[in-house]
Amino acid sequence: AMLIPYGGIGTAAQVREYLDLGAEMVGVGTVLALSEESTIKHETKLAVIAARKDDLKQVRHVYPDGKERKQNMLQFEPYQGRDDANGTAGLVQGIWKKNSKVGHIYVGHSVDHIDSILPCRQIIKNLVADL
Questions:
Q1: Can you give the pLDDT at residue 43?
Q2: Rounded CA gap, 93 and 72, in Å?
Q3: DSSP 3-state assignment of 104?
């Protein structure tokens, strides 16, 4: 079976561990979302860098068809306006609206491994250093 593990991956050692366990690919999200090239506002990137996985809140989204999805997020001041089942309006506030301390960003446990804003090229180089 093809395995694509993801979630909390932020170091070369973790990438190596999954590949050694038989994974054919390793997916990363949060570390690339916080890259220099990312369009996420700078204030949010800095807030995520300062956060640790214990600061994340797990939210449960229930969609109209009854399906449920859980996600980790870093919550800023709660968004009080109308929103959808996925919290899209709050997400927009958290990641793009300049000078706003409202909203949230969905991030994974790899926040523990992010301590600076780097270009994507350097992030990938760091993640494959043990290969």
A1: 94
A2: 17
A3: strand
Give residue 3's pLDDT: 58
DSSP state of 127: H
**Average pLDDT of the chain to the nearest whole number:** 90
Q: Which residue has the tokens 């350097």?
A: 122
3-state secondary structure of 38: coil
CA dist 66 and 101 (Å) reads 31
Tokens (6 digits) for 75: 């919550």
HSE on the CB side for 62, CA within 13 Å? Answer: 1
- The contacts of residue 36 (CB under 8 Å, 6+ apart) are 117, 118, 119, 120
The CA angle 91-52-27, to the nearest 5 degrees, is 70
pLDDT tens sequence across 69-91 = 888 999 999 999 999 888 899 99
Question: Any residues with CB less than 8 A from the CB of 77 and at least 6 apart, and which?
Answer: 101, 102, 103
Helix axes 120-127, 12-20, angle to 10 degrees: 50
Global pTM reads 0.84
Please write the tens of the pLDDT for every residue from 57-73.
999 888 888 888 888 99
